[in-house]
Amino acid sequence: MPEAGDNPDSLMSLCTVFCLKNLRRTMCYTGERNKLCLRPDVFLPSEICDKLVNVYMDLVYTDSNFEAQDGFFQLFSDPRSTRLTRLQLRDLVRDKDVEAIKKQVGKLSVTRGLKSCILGLYHQPTNTSFTYLNPVVDVEALLKPLPALTSLDLSGVYLPRPAFLAQWRDRLASLVLYNVDLSEELISTVVQMSRLRHLDISRENQRNSKFKMTRKILTSIVQSLGNLVSLDISGHIMLDNCTVPQFEDAMGRPSIEPSKSSIYPFQELKRPLQFLGLYNTTLCNVTHIPAYKVTGSKNEEQVLNAIEAYTESRPELAHRAINQLFDIARIQHCSQLLRALQLVIAALKCHKYDKSIQVTGSAALFYLTNTEYRNEQSVRLRRQVIEVVLNGMEQYQEVTVQRNCCLTLCNFSIPEELEFQYHRVNLLLLKILEPARQDESIQRIAVHLCNALVCQVDNDHKEAVGKMGFVKTMLNLIQKKLQDRMCDQVMEFSWSALWNITDETPDNCQMFLNCNGMDLFLDCLQEFPDKQELHRNMLGLLGNVAEVRALRPQLLTSQFITVFSNLLDSKADGIEVSYNACGVLSHIMFDGPDVWSVEDPERDWVMDKMWDAIQSWDVTSRRNINYRSFEPILRLLPQGISPVSQHWATWALFNLVSVYPSKYCPLLVKEGGVALLEKVLELDSSQPETKDMARYTHTHTHTHTHTLSQNMLCVHHW
Fold this sequence. Notes:
This protein is 49% helix and 6% strand. By secondary structure, it is mainly alpha-helical. The strands form three sheets. It has a seven-stranded parallel sheet. A two-stranded antiparallel sheet has the order 1-2. Strands 3-4 form a two-stranded parallel sheet. It starts with 10 loop residues before the first helix and ends with a helix.
């Protein structure tokens, strides 16, 4: 069963997203002047309208492939066909959009961006909400015509004459005074509001605050506001001692009973609060707090509550709380992993353009998705992480965000877990690697990811990535490293990535040659003669190029043949460099003596060197190579034009089925290699040593696959 909160998307959610992505095919049509219009036979109730608008805003902010629709909000201008009740609008909403939805009747609570102002939308004078976010306008004059207010948000507003708020003392159920400079007059006005259920007098921080929260003030609030279920006093300095002595606080198990409260004023509560904000105060550290949900920094639960409470409208506080979650995940252990991930994902989606949230959120994701927590995460949740990470990479070229995002991607199985965003992630990584002088650590991680993404994927994926400029980007990185005379991980990973992306992909091999890849190969070989890993990667790549018949003439030059022949003697990385050099030459020899246009070295001399090299290899050598297919090797078997090429191919199969029988015996059978080995045994041109290896390979493969089949039959019979 899926974990709570990690269930599959509801049918409602899936249909909503589909409709929004296909408006003209579902609920809309194109009117005059290409105007988006609602179909005349459509009536949408408030539940669907609210969902459509709020999901639309999420898609605009979080889905890079979703385009905002001009005229979308005008679809909801007629209350006879659409009904809206509660919306969360953001900065990209224009005045004409707001004007359209103002025509709605009934209760409509609207919150918009951080630097805008929405007038109270009220048509039924019994229930009205007002969110005020512009601190410059005279709020008293603005609010005076709104006698029916029940919810008032005056965050950050200067209130020189707060007594005017008393006109709503018998109506207000919710009052938010976040970052408002408190005074005795304001507090005395607030405690008159006997119907208040939610009061927020919190601050972002304690700096520049002349007001001190005293035990007397807190007691007055609790005693006067008997209907209170939610209170936030985060960020305040406590002037005098509001808490019980330490020895008393430490007694008994933690309790939410008001009578046992460690905070004296809250002992006056009739019942525990549903929510109590104590973030950035000393009060969050006490043992007995009479509230079901508390924000603070004492433990994981309080920190997660803070992220949940403040993400939407207090990004500065959410940023701090996510930073504390980062420390918990990094140093301690996160016990509420699912909730933590969902909250961080929500914060990153909500604040896609907030750099501080993106930095701390992506850092937290790195630790929350590592191996320690992996078994607790579903496929769906991990995909959500990938999507917000890619959002961050798209939006920010800043070093820290890019590094955090790339490191987080390294926690996933590549390419499998990234395949659903394969095109997008490759584009982003290549974009990271474009700058001439990128941060070294990001460059290293990005090249590693690029390499992993083109390893073990089908040829269609490789060709698509090649067309994005992958080959050219890797060669540019190699060129820069050559200029710096530096052979580091970036250099080696770049050649490895080229080796992978050219595997059985002729178009990418052609790109390598077209972009002067062979010149870079020679330059690297000369500049770094002792770098074994580098040589192995380069020769592996050239083996792929040599497998393409149409490209082999470009390798048939005196300079290249001499280099390949000399590398036959290499002992670098065991037999790998010598083996790959011999593979390149084997494919060239396979084209026959008629195409050999090189005078020096002579073809026979090169073939003799190839025979000597193959004879020197230990057939039990463990390999640093991974074959997905034997097809390029198998095509060298049934022929007599180049016995040395046939010998190299037979040795390769002999070695692989001997050392890795479980992996390569079935592959050899599957691709028809057994019949081709029989052909080698039949050919008069095959050398005795070649036939011996072919015979052993044939027998060993038959024995292994027969034994495996018998074991499977026994299991089934049992």
